[in-house]
Amino acid sequence: MSANVTPTPRTPGPVTPLTSSSPRRKPSVSRFRDLQTAPVLRKASMAPQSATSSSKASSAFTPVGGEESRRPSAWGPRPSIMGVLGANRFLRKVRASLKEKESTLGEPQAPQQLLEPTYRLEPKVPFKPSQVLEMLKETLNEQLEGRTYRPKLATTLCRLLTDEIRNKVKKMGFDRHRVVVTVLLCEIKDQGIVASSRCSWDDKRDSFATHTFQNKSLFCTVTVFGVYKE
């Protein structure tokens, strides 16, 4: 059993118009032109910035004259010449010390000899100022006779005199004495000078000798201290 049902058409209701407080503005021709030309202006303004940035980047990494050595290295700046020379000098010293150790390893070493205390408070060969004074006179007359004062050579000359006098005093064989040598070398220009020294002193065992040499250009004062070492 079937029944035919016919739908009834619906009638549309009343349409309420939309109301707004401000009426819609129509797009003006000038605003439309501004929107069309805005991308072009942006591209034009961005072009010189990109060109300058690329030129700066290329100038920062492009070597002058086309040399590859001036490019920045990933390992840092190159070492200086003084640094390379110092490293080579250090390596030579290390190699020399290693060779000396290798040469002494094969040689038999003498056993260390232990000495008993002597409890001796007096030197067997005491310091003799008269003998040292004669040596000072001979050495200064031999080295400084006829010399003129030169400021650039004064330091070297003082060092040479100090080494020579100290070695000669050591060869005299003073027992248990520490030898201290001071050399004062100055130019003569009508000036006055006073030289003095101060130290801990033992009148019975310590002594000294001093001598001054003088010519027309310079004068030299040498003092040798013999300090007894127990």
From TrEMBL:
Write out the similarity annotation: Belongs to the dynein light chain Tctex-type family.
Compositionally biased spans, kind Low complexity: 50-60
Name of this chain's protein: Uncharacterized protein
User: Source species, please?
Assistant: Batillaria attramentaria
Instruction: Tell me where on the tree of life, at the top rank, the source sits.
Output: Eukaryota
Ranges where the record places region Disordered: 1-78
Regions crossing the membrane? none
